[in-house]
Design goal:
690 residues, mainly beta, Maltoporin, Chain A, 5% helix, disordered N terminus, signal, receptor, transmembrane beta strand, transmembrane
């Protein structure tokens, strides 16, 4: 396969090919020990300015170290699903994307160390995110439109997955790495991963890989569909090779990653494949009162549940250069090229084929302080060539070119820190049909302040106006999509949506009592949503439309240290999303239900453990043609031990989720009734580092 290097990427490579590149690695996370955990302030890479989580005016959370190892799941959405303000789309076991403050899809941007993940997961919830949590080093979550450096459209938030595939420093002992094995009972999963970095002089190389084999998972008691979700298996293989040139003032590295994933599509049906439209109404069944058996007779009992075969090949270029020229402290570059494809296979044959060839490049310049202001100026450019061919090619082939320029600044005065951001972006979408091409422009601006009014206390306020440009799918969708049981119509007349947001947060970072609480109110003008025009036996006719919407909510956690060993945490989140209508406000679909819980944690020498109980309430605030979802209680247990074998550190962990084996449904899922949440599940694993 020949990989085409686009001119912007080539220019960035040449610009950074300098003999004085050097590493500036992030500080290592403090290891778990006897001291009870506190709200540590850690540097957030996705903040552009690299500030600490305690200094940001909008909420940010970081999963890393042993905590990340214990929480990681097979998908990104499930890994983050228990964080306050975050839920998951949950489409069986193979596809799950984060839902932040009730927003998902293109409103939540997923990055790999600052470079956009160029898969097809924003198009439909049955498409997997092409990132592997078990190979991640750290996961950062920025809630709300707090990262204009990555696009004004990320009004829900940004998830930045940091990995080790491109080394940024020479290992102290010449070689370092880790090996991890884990398994669980609900899906009879077995997974193994390794990563190793070796280096000498100014050259470092890295290799990593993973293999996962998970069968159909078991659900809670008394589900009418049986004990396991048919077609909920997940088989994954991924590997990466990277090399870096490292000097005294920066580094430059490149990595190649290949991911292969086969996973089932629970709830997929062709019972309604003969449905079509008469104006704004659905008509199901042939016009002549009989069906064309040769064309429409599918025997899925013979071929089994349809499944996705995903194949992604990605190149990443990363580099940093200190003091590049007068007036600037740092030059940072990220570029990627992705050749992504997945086939939806039915009865052993390819039914629909999705392809996405995309490039993403960004360059950032951090200037020296000017009048006390420190800031970053950046440029970003993406090119996305997307196509879908086959039975469910409901999205027309499109070529999207998007560009952006941004400026982020901060100023510190005593106990106050001020920040401001500005972004302008523009895009052009060429469509391969009779539909007209479209161009859009958008401006986004944010201001914020953090006041450290007392030792270890911080009060943050952020105001922003952000614009999201419509996606090609929202403009040009046209056809049946049985995975989500929708017949979709795009709207080429869509304009940019504009959100006005206010975010207030209060944090206490140390002492016997620590907490982080945030409240937000987002008013979105011309909000783009899927308007349901008609429904027949669960199939919905939707057309993308625009109307004003309001999102309001609160999220947070409070931890009380009981003694030197135990701590108790109260956590929860709430979001309400409504759509303005001429005949009264209406609820938006698939908004997460309210959640509140308690967690008792313990730390003693190398041991750590926790007992967690939370309640997800019944979701009665539903959209038209949407059903309510019953509430449920979830009881989880976990324990781990960090020790050494000679000089080799290891972590052994065990956890039991849904201990009471409760039957639970996710309101954020398109297929909640066909794929309930996992039942009682025992997970065990061990990780060795060297």
């Amino acid at each position: 396969m020949t990989t085409r290097i686009h001119p912007p990427s080539l220019a960035l490579m040449i610009a950074l090919a300098h003999p004085a590149l050097a590493a500036d690695p992030q500080p290592a996370a403090a290891p778990d020990g006897d001291k009870p955990a506190e709200l540590r302030a850690v540097t957030v890479s996705a903040s552009a300015l690299g500030v600490g989580s305690d200094a940001m005016s909008t909420p940010a959370s970081v999963l890393e170290g042993d905590e990340l190892v214990r929480r990681r799941a097979a998908t990104l959405g499930e890994t983050l699903a228990n964080e306050p303000g975050i839920h998951a789309t949950h489409f069986g076991a193979g596809a799950s994307r984060p839902v932040i403050r009730g927003m998902d899809g293109a409103r939540v941007k997923v990055l790999a160390d600052g470079a956009e993940i160029m898969d097809a997961s924003t198009i439909s919830p049955d498409h997997a995110v092409a990132v592997e949590p078990m190979l991640s080093e750290r996961i950062e979550v920025l809630r709300g439109p707090s990262a204009l450096a990555y696009g004004g459209g990320a009004i829900g938030g940004v998830v930045n997955v940091l990995d080790r595939k491109i080394p940024v420093a020479i290992p102290e002992r010449g070689v370092e790495g880790s090996v991890e094995l884990r398994g669980n009972t609900a899906a009879r999963e077995a997974a193994g991963a390794f990563e190793i970095t070796a280096g000498s002089g100014s050259i470092a190389v890295h290799a990593e890989g993973l293999k996962r084999d998970a069968r159909d998972y078991r659900v809670g008691d008394d589900w009418s569909g049986g004990s396991r979700v048919d077609g909920s298996y997940n088989e994954t293989e991924t590997g990466s090779l990277g090399i870096s040139w490292i000097g005294e003032r920066g580094y430059l590295g490149i990595a190649w990653t290949r991911q292969r994933n086969d996973y089932g599509l629970p709830g997929h049906t062709h019972e309604l494949e003969d449905c079509h439209t008469h104006g704004n109404h659905l008509h199901c069944g042939a016009h002549d009162g009989h069906e064309d058996e040769e064309e429409h007779d599918h025997d899925h009992a013979e071929g089994g549940v349809p499944y996705v075969r995903l194949d992604s090949e990605r190149w990443d270029l990363r580099g940093e250069y200190l003091d590049p020229f007068a007036g600037f402290a740092r030059l940072r570059v990220r570029a990627s090229h992705t050749n992504y494809g997945h086939d939806e296979i039915e009865d052993g044959a390819v039914a629909t084929r999705f392809r996405n060839k995309a490039s993403d490049g960004r360059i950032e310049l951090e200037h020296q302080p000017l009048g006390g202001w420190r800031g970053v100026l950046g440029l970003q450019s993406t090119r996305r060539d997307f196509s879908a061919v086959g039975e469910e090619a409901y999205v027309q082939p499109t070529l999207t070119r998007r560009h952006g320029v941004f400026l982020v600044e901060e100023y510190t005065a005593g106990d106050w820190r001020f920040e401001a951001g500005l972004r302008h972006e523009w895009q052009k979408i060429d469509v391969d049909s009779a539909s007209r091409d479209r161009s859009h422009r958008g401006n986004s601006v944010s201001v914020g302040a953090v006041w450290n009014f007392a030792p270890q206390y911080a009060l943050g306020l952020s105001l922003s106006r952000a614009q999201r440009l419509p996606t090609a799918e929202e403009l040009y969708a046209d056809g049946l999509h049985m995975a989500t049981r929708t017949l979709e119509r795009g709207n080429p007349d869509l304009d940019a949506e504009t959100s006005h947001n206010i975010d207030l947060s209060l944090k206490k970072l140390a002492g016997p009592t620590t907490f982080s609480v945030s409240a937000f109110h987002n008013r979105v003008s011309d909000f783009i949503y899927a308007h349901t025009l008609d429904e027949h036996d669960g199939l919905q006719l939707i057309e993308y439309a625009q109307r004003d919407a309001v999102f309001t909510g609160i999220e947070g956690q409070v931890r009380q240290r009981l003694n030197t060993m135990f701590g108790l945490t109260l956590f929860g989140d709430y979001v309400r999303a409504r759509l303005a209508s001429s005949d009264g406000d209406r609820d938006l679909p698939r908004i997460p239900a309210h959640r509140i819980g308690l967690r008792l944690d313990a730390h003693w020498q190398g041991w750590a453990g926790e007992v967690e109980l939370y309640r997800v309430t019944r979701q009665r605030q539903v959209a038209e043609f949407e059903s309510s979802t019953p509430g449920y209680n979830m009881l989880n247990l976990g324990a781990s031990y960090a020790g050494r074998i000679d000089s080799v550190p290891y972590l052994f962990y065990v956890k039991v989720s849904n201990l009471t084996d409760e039957l639970a449904y996710s309101h954020t899922s398109f297929i909640k009734d066909a794929a309930p949440l996992t039942g009682r599940n025992l997970t065990m694993g061990v990780r060795l580092s060297f």
